[in-house]
Amino acid sequence: MLKKLYVEDALKMPEGSEVELLGWIRNKRIHGGLIFLDLRDRSGIIQVAVKRGVVPDGEFEQAESALRESAVRVSGTVRHDPRAPNGVEIRCRRLEVIGPSLDDFPIRKGVKVKFVLDNRHLHIRSPRVAAIMKIRARLLSAARNWLESRGFIEVNCPSFITAAVEGGATLFEIDYFGRKAYLTQSSQFYQEAAIYSLEKVYSLQPSFRAELSRTRRHLTEFWHLEAEMAYAELEDILKVIEELLYAMVLGVYESSQRELELLKLKIDPDAAKPPYPRISYAEALEILDRKGIKVRWGDDFGADEERELSKEFEKPFFVTYWPREAKAFYHMPDRENPDVCRNADLLAPGGFGEIVGGGQRIHDYDQLLERIRENGLNPEDYKWYLDLRKYGSVPHSGFGLGVERVLWWLLKLPHIRDACLFPRTPARVYP
Ligand code: 4AD
Ligand code: MG
């Protein structure tokens, strides 16, 4: 192993410790015979003082000419110095350029957003992006831990599929050796098959939406955390959703104070503590009406409606019992009022809107067939999905959580693409 020590460890070492660090030159300031390098690695940034006469001449010259983002090996002594950022500096004795930058690093202050996105492969070196990606990893790890601890079994589902889950309008069509196929919008139907074997399952994988809407909250490829439970009704799955989200927020809070500080953010886990308010679609319409926003009964909410509604709440909240025409065909109509379904969206407060969608599924064969026909779909396309209702069908429920949506809300990011390493939007499949 070439590397033995991270910057964050060096920052904690006592005065006079001998260290060797491997990293990249984030910035450089030359004051005659003294050069200050900001050495960056994944764990932080430390100032390195390179003095003529202290390091061999050839190495001093290398430091002098090294461009930003050159990779270097630095050895020297730890000095506690209040003038240094973080109060610590390395007095360099040896310096080696391992991988020089061949050109000026293109990402610098003042460049345009489009340029930064076109150079995302370089921009992700920024401490801010690194902090977001670390938090993303911990958010997912907290989710997995919680689901595993509650007995959910992870499954992996296909991305090539033959029939829509969430309606044809957002399907990506592909040529599958001369046959028509699609990229999946959700793993839900495969999970529904899996519960007859594993009862409680979850998956974490990309979903695809050919969504032309250029909003701050739509991606064409997003990471979908989905779960499905046998013998569960609407209220059971709502409890799972709120407990899971709380565990995810708590996981980030407990593991990522340094990163949150870097992002100048405070998270209050109590603001995500269950139980979450539950309002029905009908009540949501009333709230919107009082705010002067008219929604026709049966219409799904757009970004504007969701934003206005979610300004009314301090905590994430469920909008339950949607009209059957507003959502996909598989949702279970309510026994008392079959015009609405036993489903729910979870909306994040503060104008962010939907982060989770889910509910109870139709488990009766005839009822599902009727809903497929009612939606103008071809039952042939859903043959295997209908089959699941033919052999030992049971009440079941599930949900899908948009990973980037949750991060976007939790970290108050300007745009959902900031939650991705390499975002995919209608305008962007490169880099
Ligand atoms: O509400 P959606 O469309 O629900 C489903 O796909 C269900 N089949 C999931 C299930 O029950 N297993 O999508 C679920 C979530 C949304 O709440 C949102 O967070 C996210 O996926 N999502 C998107 N995220 C980013 N960009 C998009 N274009 C998204 N579309 C949905
Ligand atoms: Mg939805």
What fold name stands as the CATH topology of the largest domain? BirA Bifunctional Protein, domain 2
**What small ligands are held by the chains?**
4-amino-1,4-dioxobutan-2-aminium adenosine-5'-monophosphate, magnesium ion
From the coordinates shown, what is the CATH architecture of the largest domain?
2-Layer Sandwich
Work out the helicity level. Answer: 25-40%
Q: What general form does the structure show? A: elongated
**Secondary structure category:** alpha+beta
What is the beta-strand fraction?
Answer: 25-35%
Number of domains: 2
Number of strands: 16
Spatial order of the strands in the main sheet?
6-10-11-16-15-14-13-12
The CATH class of the largest domain is: Alpha Beta
- Separation, N- and C-terminal Cα atoms: 30 Å
Task: Describe, in plain words, how this protein is organized in 3D.
This protein has 431 residues and is an alpha+beta fold. The chain has 2 domains: 4-99, OB fold (Dihydrolipoamide Acetyltransferase, E2P); 120-419, Bira Bifunctional Protein, Domain 2 (BirA Bifunctional Protein, domain 2, 2-Layer Sandwich). Helix content is 29%, strand content 26%. It contains 13 helices and 16 strands. Strands 6-10-11-16-15-14-13-12 form an 8-stranded mixed β-sheet, sandwiched between helices. Strands 1-2-3-5-4 form a 5-stranded mixed barrel. Helix 5 (127-149) packs across helix 7. The longest helix is centred in the first third of the chain and has 23 residues, at 127-149. The mean pLDDT is 97. The structure holds 4-amino-1,4-dioxobutan-2-aminium adenosine-5'-monophosphate (4AD) and magnesium ion. Residues 345, 354, 357 line the site of magnesium ion.
